[in-house]
Amino acid sequence: MTILAFILTFVVMIEHIYIMILEMFFSNTNLAAKTFGVEKELLANRKVQTLFANQGLYNGFLAAGLAWGLFFAGDTFAGSVQIFFLSCVVIAALFGGATSSRGILAKQGVPAVLALVAVLLV
Prior knowledge:
Elements: H1 2-25, H2 30-36, H3 40-43, H4 46-72, H5 74-99, H6 103-121
Helix pairs in contact: 1-4, 1-6, 4-5, 5-6
């Protein structure tokens, strides 16, 4: 179960690095428009780009927290750190699913829940 927990948590971390990069540096692209389900014209708005960059920073913090739990927290705190940040991802996915797009539940929520369960079972 330890290997599975590591792999699932790593996948969630990589997903949030990808989202961070997309939101912070490539928000005005066709890929971002398709990924986030918005018109490219909206993404051309400088204020919207700023909002996306801010959101990307938060996704980066989630990824950094998961990296901390996976690689730097040490045996004593690693599980607790992973549980905290995976819980944050689950809560964010629930909120995003309720307020933005239900697809967020599947794309971000399900992997985070699976990782969280695996970490809790270790």
